[in-house]
Structures are given as structure tokens and as C-alpha cells.
Amino acid sequence: MASFNKVILMGNLTRDPELRMTPGGMAICKLGIAVNRVFTTKEGEKREEVTFIDCDAFGRQAETLSKYMSKGRSLLIEGRLRLDQWESKEGEKRSKISVVVENFQFTGDRGEGGGSGESSGSAGGSNYESSAPPPRTTGQQRPPEQDIDEDVPF
């Protein structure tokens, strides 16, 4: 039986990321994200539904998120669902679904809390300024095209 577990979320952080290190030196970052859904009821009334999701990032991604993200900042997360199950002190069985971050992208402007323009969760991500195309200026001429075959059938 085939299965597929993929989640893509974009929302705002509900709290500052919490970074911890395991005894083995692995970084773990816990963060919460709020995802909003705006819809119109049958009566024509606009409503907003908010879903709060706990997320966990590991390794270099955890360190990057902890360093550059803060409460209120916008973030796009790509990951997978994980079900945590445990027993409370009172003996009740408890469970919670969370997202394990596999990739992420900073969204929004940098004025939302400062930070870097690193665009992905991979180690050694590129800086925004170095990866963005140069700004356009009015009156700028395009470079001459070379070796263009005028008989291209499309």
C-alpha cells in the first residue's frame, strides 16, 4: 500500500523559536505557526478561522530558524506530519499531531523582525542579495543576442 506524507504551510510564528541541544550536539528548534483561513458563510458574513500548529526543526535548519525568526514573522514550511503519543501523569493517554520541518523559506519583508534573507533551510543557504537578479533601471538596454536562429519554428 502506497502512502504519502507531505505538508506545506504558510503562516506567522505564534512565539519565538525555542532552541535546545541534545547531549549528542543535535540542535532541535520548537516553534508554533498560525495559519489563517478566511471564508464567507451562507449568510454572506466573512469569518476567519485560525489553526495553530506545533513544528520541530532539526540540525542546521533548527539553528537558522532560531537565529533569524521571531514571533509574528511569516514563514513557509514544507514538512511531514508526526503523531506523538504519551501517557499523562494521571494515566490518561494523550496524543498530538505536529509537523517535522524538512524545508522552509522566509517570507514577508525583513522589517517584520530583522534577520537574514537566507531563502531555504538547507545548510549554507544563499544570501538574498547575492541570489536576487540586479535591479532594473529605466532606459537600460538589453545585451545583444548572439547566435539566434531566425528559422526556429516556434
Automatic annotation (TrEMBL):
GO molecular function: single-stranded DNA binding
Gene Ontology CC, one term: nucleoid
UniProt keyword annotations, A-Z: DNA-binding
Protein name: Single-stranded DNA-binding protein
Composition skew (Gly residues), residue ranges: 113-124
Alphabetized Gene3D superfamilies for the sequence: Nucleic acid-binding proteins
PANTHER family associated with the record: SINGLE-STRANDED DNA-BINDING PROTEIN (PTHR10302:SF27)
Region annotation Disordered: where it falls in the sequence: 105-154
Coiled-coil region(s): none
Gene label: ssb
Species the sequence originates in: Rubellicoccus peritrichatus
